[in-house]
Amino acid sequence: MKPASFDVAVGLFVLSLVPWLPVSGFGEAARRRWRRWMIGLLIYAFAVETIQQFRGIDPRFSQAEPGSQFFGAFFFASALGIMTMAIALAARAFETPAIGRQGLLVVAARWAGASMLMGFLAGFWLSANQGRVVGEAGNLLPLHAGGFHAVQAVPLVALMLAWSRVPVDAARRSVHIAGAAWAAACLAIWWQTAVGRAVIDLASLAGIGAVALLGLWTLTALRALVAWRRA
User: Fold this and answer.
1) Are 92 and 24 in contact (CB under 8 A)?
2) pLDDT of 208 strictly over 70
3) Strand, coil or helix: what is 179?
4) How many domains does the chain have?
5) CA quadruple 57, 59, 60, 63: dihedral sign
6) Cα–Cα distance between 104 and 195 in angstroms, integer?
7) Do 150 and 12 touch, CB atoms closer than 8 A?
8) Are 155 and 211 in a shared domain?
9) CB atoms within 10 A of CB 148
10) CB 167 within 8 A of CB 226
11) Which residue range is the domain that position 173 belongs to?
């Protein structure tokens, strides 16, 4: 299950970045280089994760023979490469004008990039912590996943609104609401995790806030879905 979950999750994450390329402002040559580097890094990461796990070796924190430790070091380097490529693409969204309906995806990429950065930081936290458990009941995986799923959740709202008849200004406000709600929910989950509480623990203000913020994103997404269906 570990290599399956890794390969599917990382593959979907990178595929979700592909729609950003046309609005990134990159030239054709830059987009081609981005695709080639990302494909190469992914192939190596998939190979090491899958082969080492089937050998019974943790590809990240291997204490096995020197060869496995060498491949593990390059596995970490490939993860840094994927992170760099993703952040470089997200950073372009802050330099690209958000004009017209196509600009809705640019706005979504800005917000998703902010949440994605929290997902990467959670990954570093996982490595430094040598595991997902924090304190009594904190778990880093929901934060890690929540940050990365922003690259699907926020652009999805933008795409549905772009395909609808909602005026651009109103659609842009909805994308800002969806993006801000998701990013703020990630911050609430971060706080909940840092103090050692489970994400589903609603006895704290952070837990209640995370649920409310995700509910706000859900409401915005449903309104975008209805607008798209009407169109």
Assistant:
1) yes
2) yes
3) helix
4) 2
5) positive
6) 36
7) no
8) yes
9) 24
10) no
11) 98-231
Please say which residue of 96, 123, 154 terminates a domain. Answer: 96
Clarify whether residues 136 and 87 are in a common domain. Answer: no
Element (H, E) at 160: helix 140-162
User: How far apart (Å, rounded) are the C-alpha atoms in residues 40 and 71?
Assistant: 15
Q: What is the tens place of the pLDDT at every residue in 80-115?
A: 888 898 888 888 888 888 888 888 999 999 999 999
Long-range contacts of 124-130 (CB under 8 A, 24+ apart): 127/60, 127/76, 130/61
Q: Which two tokens stand for residue 79?
A: 């993860």
Q: Are residues 110 and 88 in the same domain?
A: no
What pLDDT does 62 receive?
Answer: 59
Indicate the length of the chain as a whole number: 231
Which amino acid is it at 21? L
- Looking at the structure, do residues 83 and 102 belong to the same domain, yes or no? no
- Contact status, residue 138 vs residue 193, Cβ threshold 8 Å: yes
Instruction: Specify whether 140 is located in the same domain as 48.
Output: no
Could you give phi then psi for residue 133, rounded to 5 degrees?
Answer: -80, 130
* Residue ranges of E strands in the chain: 133-134, 138-139
Indicate whether 59 and 123 sit together in one domain.
no
